[in-house]
């Protein structure tokens, strides 16, 4: 069962499938989704995916409760790889509908389930905006920190060619002696 702190995991790696390994203060975390939550791309290989990210490879697993999937057909109008813009009236209308779906979830566990289902089916920027707004307006989640858009979409704010160098620096160089990548 998911708790409200687990919701912040849904912001990590927005372009990767929800079932990928995430990280929190406890270590590596796997989001274990029900079979009907896999998109068409992964549905036929869901068993292999579940065994690939097994219990031995992670410190904690969050089982996602199966819920009736919401109808997200309205969000298909904004493709996953296109930019989301609040100044676009149609994007704002789509966002309003997705926010309502997140707000209508009766509890945190249901919100985690519905948000997990939506994660791989809607535009990632739209998704993160809507989940952020919903969490800020729900009494049961408004005290949870929400990562900044610069953390979740660094490619929107820095030269993408710097990202691999920064990852290398972060992975192999100890704190205190790291240097900023040259731009």
Entry summary:
With 183 residues, the chain is mainly alpha-helical. The chain contains 7 helices and 3 strands.
Largest sheet: 3 strands, mixed
Number of helices: 7
Strand order within the widest sheet? 1-2-3
Shape: globular
Order of helices and strands: EEHHEHHHHH
Strand content: 5-15%
CATH homologous group name: Hemocyanin, N-terminal domain
Rg measurement, Å: 17 Å
Query: Can you identify the CATH class?
Result: Mainly Alpha
- The counted number of beta strands is 3
The structural class is mainly alpha
The separation of the N and C termini measures 44 Å
The CATH architecture: Up-down Bundle
Helical fraction equals 25-40%
Average pLDDT number: 88
CATH-defined topology: Hemocyanin, N-terminal domain
What's the structural domain tally? 1
Structure commentary:
By secondary structure, the chain is mainly alpha-helical. The chain has one domain: Up-down Bundle (Hemocyanin, N-terminal domain). 37% of the residues lie in helices and 8% in strands. It has a three-stranded mixed sheet, with no helix packed on it. A hairpin with a 2-residue loop joins strand 1 and strand 2. Helix 3 packs across helix 5. The longest helix is centred in the middle third of the chain and has 16 residues. The termini are far apart. The model has no long low-confidence stretch (mean pLDDT 88). It comes from Phlebotomus papatasi. This is Hemocyanin N-terminal domain-containing protein. It holds the Pfam family Hemocyanin_N.
């Amino acid at each position: 069962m998911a708790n409200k702190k687990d919701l912040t995991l849904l912001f990590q790696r927005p372009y990767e499938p929800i079932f990928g390994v995430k990280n929190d203060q406890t270590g590596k975390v796997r989001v274990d989704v029900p079979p009907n939550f896999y998109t068409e791309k992964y549905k036929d290989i869901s068993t292999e995916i579940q065994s690939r990210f097994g219990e031995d490879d992670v410190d904690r697993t969050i089982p996602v409760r199966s819920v009736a999937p919401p109808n997200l057909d309205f969000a298909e109008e904004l493709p996953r790889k296109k930019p989301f813009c609040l100044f676009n009236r149609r994007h704002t209308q789509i966002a309003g509908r997705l926010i309502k779906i997140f707000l209508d979830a009766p509890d945190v566990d249901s919100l985690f389930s519905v948000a997990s289902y939506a994660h791989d089916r809607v535009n990632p920027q739209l998704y993160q905006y809507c989940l952020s707004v919903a969490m800020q307006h729900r009494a049961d989640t408004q005290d949870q920190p929400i990562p900044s858009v610069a953390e979740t979409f660094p490619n929107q704010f820095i030269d993408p060619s710097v990202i691999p160098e920064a990852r290398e620096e972060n992975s192999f160089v100890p704190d205190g002696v790291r240097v900023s990548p040259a731009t």
